[in-house]
């Protein structure tokens, strides 16, 4: 076995690989970019080498630099993780040319499966069932259209070099074909530098079911059963599970053997995944067709680990060091059911637009409160870390296991409820809605689950203004009480010190202004009015947050304040409310001014002012861009610009001071 390996990746997968290496007493070398200098994976490995700038092309894709780092640190092998260089046959070749072991398949297998069209031609020869379609090399638009007409609509046009859900267009009718082809080719050339496409039948009620395969250098092959990854957004996976609901023993065997035929056809070695599209016919029958093979470890590999009790990274290391597969096909068993949820920094209500920001609060489920092994969290971040615009938006993966799917599902809902993130938009709440949706709960799976259930998935409000406002008021009062301590002269409950017994609150909730009124009654009780709801408010601090009773409802809320925003976490779900406490504001006066900082990590697009300019309150000073969104920085008060601290195009960290003004 290797004594030391280099992990040519970052984040969650780098930590995942390092964890197994550590267990096997293998030393690890991390690589990192500028943006990742303080990242979790860097501290987690035994050594770390800086390899360049933040953009992937300046660091994680610089394979000469990575090979140098491996040589310099005495690593014997390189684990590529997924993404980045994992499916780059030149990198795999360069590793072996440099005398290093690439922990993955031989370059020839990566190449054979690299292009979807070529791999389909190969699979056809190997007798693996293919989706009816055209995957030839003639790319003339007339021919492609004729093929689409022959296949019959709807069809899917796919970039042969595509990946990550990009470069695909569904076409419903012949008239739409030309425009879709042109747009698909444009995206393909921009994203992959290759505009070759294939055309295939768009499967009916499709499910994505994939088979995990493993090969060793001694010619042994096994399949580690299937994963159902049908729940997708933008053709990208969000929830994955194993085994696939409704899978019969006969079909599992057929699919497993087809996957092994695919692997054998390219002399595969190591971990790989053969992806199939499964068509569900009206009569209940299911047909499976080869889609592509991913020649690497897959993001969702933990669900396979959960049902087999195996460590796939350990198997990768064993195979790469020349050992035989530890188990034969008839020694492999499925135990229970596992589901993985990908927690991503994104905004589900805004077309899943990726989000960036700092993890001001990052609370993970308490794995020890569940049965042993029932809940696992894989991540590459810690509280305080930023999700930057440079890399993938995945924050963490929650993996749950149960004896049955129902048990796994209940654990997933609880684990999601315990996942608390403040500082950026995530899909945590959305995932809870998906998990509870009738289709997912009843395992009525297909790739259109999210659009079909959209009525219960989007723009939902689990808590509501009334209870959100009650939580925020309770939180404000508890805070004040703890700040005041026992000093009677600093008490802020207006009734005693100022003779005022009514206090007003202003909120912003779901983009709408709202008001509440709090009355301190003479017996010390509190009466609250929010909109047209009015009644006594009773609350007390508890270990789980604040126990509240208001307007006939009882709720426990954990409230985290970030600036003026209260993030309210309850068993029903999470929400946030902006609190403008008028009493508090009256004491403090207008915003302090002076320092103007970046609200999130991103790029400076432009400055609208220069040093010496007089500006008035609310005037736009600068524009920042983070991922696909622009943010305007406005003057908090009238004043004069003293100094501009960055130039357009500069990358800035969250909280970086952009310019100074004097107010
Ligand atoms: P990528 O390389 O981007 O992963 P895939 O070929 O694996 O591309 O397809 C991604 C997703 O697109 C699949 O998981 C599935 O949801 C959908 N898809 C692909 N091919 C078909 C098809 N023929 N019919 C219906 N859906 C498909
Ligand atoms: P899979 O096919 O394995 O389910 P994807 O199709 O989403 O997963 O492809 C893997 C993707 O993982 C890459 O395209 C990349 O965007 C992303 N990725 C790469 N490295 C990391 C990482 N360290 N952490 C999270 N995601 C990553
Ligand atoms: Mg795929």
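^ Assign residues to that structure.
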């Amino acid at each position: 076995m290797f004594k030391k390996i280099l992990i040519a990746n970052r984040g969650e997968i780098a930590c995942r690989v390092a964890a197994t290496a550590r267990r096997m007493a293998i030393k690890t070398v991390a690589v990192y970019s500028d943006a990742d200098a303080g990242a979790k994976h860097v501290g987690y490995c035994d050594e770390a080498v800086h390899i360049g700038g933040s953009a992937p092309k300046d660091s994680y894709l610089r394979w000469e630099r990575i090979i140098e780092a491996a040589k310099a640190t005495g690593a014997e092998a390189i684990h590529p993780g997924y993404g980045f260089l994992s499916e780059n046959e030149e990198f795999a070749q360069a590793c072996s040319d440099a005398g290093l072991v690439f922990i993955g398949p031989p370059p020839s297998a990566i190449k054979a499966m690299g292009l979807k069209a070529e791999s389909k031609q190969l699979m056809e020869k190997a007798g693996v069932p293919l989706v009816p379609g055209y995957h030839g090399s003639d790319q003339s638009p007339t021919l492609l259209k004729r093929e689409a007409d022959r296949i019959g609509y709807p069809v899917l046009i796919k970039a042969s070099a595509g990946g990550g859900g990009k470069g695909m267009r569904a076409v419903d009718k012949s008239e739409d074909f030309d425009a879709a082809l042109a747009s698909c080719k444009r995206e393909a050339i921009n994203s992959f530098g290759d505009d070759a496409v294939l055309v295939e039948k768009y499967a009916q009620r499709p499910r994505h079911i994939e088979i995990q395969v493993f090969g060793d250098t001694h010619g042994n092959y096994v399949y580690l059963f299937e994963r159902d990854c049908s729940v997708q957004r933008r053709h990208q996976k969000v929830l994955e599970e194993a085994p696939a609901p409704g899978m019969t023993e006969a079909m599992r065997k057929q699919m497993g053997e087809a996957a092994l035929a695919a692997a054998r056809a390219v002399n595969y070695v190591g971990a790989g995944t053969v992806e199939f599209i499964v068509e569900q016919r009206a009569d209940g029958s299911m047909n499976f067709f080869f889609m592509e093979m991913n020649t690497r470890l897959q993001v969702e590999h933990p669900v396979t680990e959960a049902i087999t009790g195996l460590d796939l990274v350990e198997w990768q290391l064993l195979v790469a060091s020349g050992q035989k597969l530890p188990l034969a096909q008839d020694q492999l068993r499925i135990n229970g059911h596992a589901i993985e949820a990908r927690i991503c920094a994104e905004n589900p209500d805004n077309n899943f637009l990726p989000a960036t920001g700092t993890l001001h609060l990052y609370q993970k489920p308490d794995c020890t409160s569940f049965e042993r092994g029932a809940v696992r969290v894989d991540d590459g971040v810690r509280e305080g870390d930023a999700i930057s615009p440079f890399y993938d938006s995945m924050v963490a993966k929650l993996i749950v296991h149960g004896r049955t799917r129902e048990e796994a599902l209940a654990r997933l809902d609880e684990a999601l409820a315990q996942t608390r993130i403040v500082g950026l938009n995530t899909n945590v709440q959305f995932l809870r809605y998906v998990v509870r949706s009738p289709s997912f709960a009843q395992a009525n799976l297909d790739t259109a689950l999210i659009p079909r259930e959209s009525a219960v998935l989007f723009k939902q409000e689990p808590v509501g203004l009334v209870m959100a406002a009650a939580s925020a008021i309770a939180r404000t009062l508890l805070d004040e009480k703890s700040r005041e301590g026992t000093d009677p002269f600093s008490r802020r409950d207006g009734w005693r010190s100022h003779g005022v017994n009514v206090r007003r609150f202003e909120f912003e909730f779901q983009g709408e202004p709202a008001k509440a009124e709090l009355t301190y009654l003479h017996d010390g009780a509190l009466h609250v009015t929010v909109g047209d709801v009015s009644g006594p408010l009773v609350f007390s601090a508890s270990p789980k947050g604040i126990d509240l009773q208001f307007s006939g409802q009882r709720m426990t809320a954990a409230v985290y304040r970030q600036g003026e925003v209260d993030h309210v976490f309850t068993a029903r779900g999470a929400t946030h409310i902006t609190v403008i406490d008028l009493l508090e504001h009256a004491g403090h006066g207008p915003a302090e001014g002076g320092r103007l900082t970046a609200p999130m990590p991103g790029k400076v697009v432009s400055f609208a002012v220069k040093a010496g300019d007089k500006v008035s309150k609310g005037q736009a000073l600068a524009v920042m861009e983070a991922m696909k969104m622009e943010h305007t920085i406005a003057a908090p008060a009238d004043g004069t610009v003293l100094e501009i601290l960055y130039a357009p195009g500069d990358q800035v960290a969250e909280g970086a001071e952009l310019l100074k003004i004097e107010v």
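The first helix runs from residue 11 to 23.
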